[in-house]
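Changelog entry

Holo records now carry the ligand SMILES as an explicit input line rather than a separate metadata file. Below, a converted record for manganese (II) ion, shown in the new format.
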Amino acid sequence: MQNIHTVFISDLHLGTPDCQAALLSDALRKLAPKKLYLVGDIIDLAAMRKKAVLPQDQQLLIGQFWQMAKEGCEIIYIPGNHDAPMRKLRGLKLGQLQIRRKAIHKTRDGRRFLVSHGDEFDGHVKIHPMLLALGDHGHQILLWLNRRYNKLRSWLRMPYRSLAAMIKQRFGSAQRYITRFQEAACTEASRQSLDGYIGGHIHQAGFSHMKGILYCNDGDWVEHCTTLVETDSGALQLIHWPSMEVISEPVATAENTLELDGKLA
Ligand SMILES: [Mn+2]
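Structure line, unchanged by the conversion:
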C-alpha cells in the first residue's frame, strides 16, 4: 500500500450495536494518516436517545482517535444529521481536533474538494438512505415480514399484498436516488468553482464524474466498511476494508461522465 496522507470516513454510528469499530480500528492503525476527516454520523446521538450502547471495541476506537490527535494527526470532525447537536460546537479546536460544519480539502496535487456530510441534499432526493443499506440478506427478513404482514391483512379480511414487492419497487429507484444525490452535491461543488465533492450519508461508497466535477462518497462503517483515502501523491482511492479491494478514482471519459441533468453524456 502506498503512503496514505488523508483518510475520510463517515457513518460510523457509534453508540449503536451496528458500528464495525474493531475493523475500523484495524484500518486506522494500518493506514496511519496524517489527516483524518470524520464526515458525519460519527456518534449516533439520534439513536442513543432511545437506546445507547458503547461496547469495548467502540470505547477503544474513541481512545484511538484521541491518541492519533495526540501523535499529531489533524482531525476534522464534520457532524452529520445523526450527530447534529455537535454542529453547535463548530469552530471548536481541541489540540489537533477541530469541529467544522463543512470544509474545503486541498489534495496534494492541488485540487480542491468540498467536504460535507451530505444530508443538506435530502431535499433533492426522496428515498430513505437506510433502504439502501438493507442489502442482499435483507431479503430473507423482508420475506419474513411479508408473511407477518399478510397474516394480519387476512385477519382484517384484506387482500394479499406483497410487502416485498412494494419495498423492492422502491429499491428500483435506488440508482435514481444516488444519481440525484450526486447531482445535488456536484452542482454545489461547481457553484463554488471546486474540483470535486467528498461526502457520505447515503451509505454507498463510490466515484463518479459529473460535468468535470469528481464525486466521491466514502461509504459507511455499519455494514460496507469502506474508506476514502488520499495518497501522498494526491490520488484518491476507495478501500473496501474486509476484502482489501481498492478502487482508484476514475478518469473522466464520455462513458462515465454524467451530465448534471442525470443523462449520460
Ligand atoms: Mn447521515
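Spot-checked after migration. Residues 40-41, 80-82, 117, 119, 201 surround manganese (II) ion (CB under 6 Å). The domain at 4-125+180-258 is CATH 3.60.21.10 (Purple Acid Phosphatase; chain A, domain 2).
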